[in-house]
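Bug report

Summary: structure tokens for N5-carboxyaminoimidazole ribonucleotide synthase differ between web form and batch submission.
Environment: batch mode, default settings.
Steps: 1) Submit the sequence below via batch. 2) Compare with the web form result.

Sequence submitted:
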Amino acid sequence: MSAPILAVIGGGQLARMMQEEASALGIHLRTLVETPDGSAAQVTVDAPVGGADDADAVRALVTGAAALTFEHEHQDSALLTQLQAEGVPVRPAPEALLLARDKLAMRRAVDAAGLPQPAWAEIAGNAQEMRAQIGAFAADHGWPVVLKTPRGGYDGHGVLMVDSATALDDGEAATWLEATAAARAGHATNGTGGGGSLGGGAVTSLLVEAAVPFTRELAVLLARRPSGQIAVWPVIESVQSDGICVETVAPAPGLDPAAARQAEHIGRTIAERADVTGVLAVELFAVEAPEDTRLYINELAMRPHNSGHWTQDGALTSQFAQHLRAVLDLPLGATTPTAPTTVMVNYLGGDSLPPADVLARALECEPRAHIHLYGKQWRPGRKLGHVNLTTSATDPAGIGAVRERARAVVAILRGEA
């Protein structure tokens, strides 16, 4: 049986974990890595070095490949469109990937689909005009509001909460407005920075959204093949800190079954309308009340996602194996949980370099823990790994105890215990 070649742009931990599953399935993963010692390069035999905006490197990457996929959204759309026109199966397609790359495109598509999301508006102009537009939006929807850069944001970057009109006059908000106005002026005079380049170019407009008073954050994860088959994992609860997902619990404890069905409907609708291929993650705000639960779409990702790391040890098919199957149009695996509850805790770099013996101590602390390390150099706040822990508990006390155990393992890895 010949091994199909799957080309992946990006050499971080997501590509690294794809390689683990590719090896098991006999798939030849060819990964375009940013550096020869990066996370994915350490475990992938076929790992040419290059950037997503290097047309020659990308063309060499896809030579002989059955499909091209990605571990991040920051791609060169024009190049992907050209490759697709030349017959390269680009999955997800550039048209679908745009909804994960461009928050304005996503908001428009979600509105067109009639799905729930926060009130929003695009703002542009000089700094004074944008202040007036934000003020008018807040007059209709209330303070605080959320400013977002349409492209290039991740892990809390490119997102800013603004509490009042006076906060727009100085500090970070004022810097955003001035920079956006300057970029727009430059675009108008010389045609540069208009959002067509890798990462979106200079930001020439901003997105303003009503702040949702959510009670917790959720995510629905699914995978879709080109032939249309869809497989959905249970809806999970995620905990964010400084814009970074730090914990997940699967399934989301105590979630209203009607809300879980709505979340799945949202994910399926987006996947089908946008013709998504591969894994799709839909991040959601939940506003829970005794009478009902209201959901609002926050962001999309079209690749394996932090909210799905629990599937490596808590589901019959992991998100990484499923993504490979989906983009190669292979039958999808079962998404059935292997335990009543799975907790995932991210391992972020601590304030100082941890001692050399932390792995041994972490394994000794909790023999049931599944520790996944990314092979990255330590840096404060950097994602270095995650810990999964399954449990038969479904009650708040039992789940809470397992979360504490997983946190304890991470604390040891960070050198804090």
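Above is the batch result. After comparison, the two runs are identical; trailing whitespace caused the diff. The two ends are 49 Å apart (CA to CA). Residues 191-200 have pLDDT under 50 and may be disordered.
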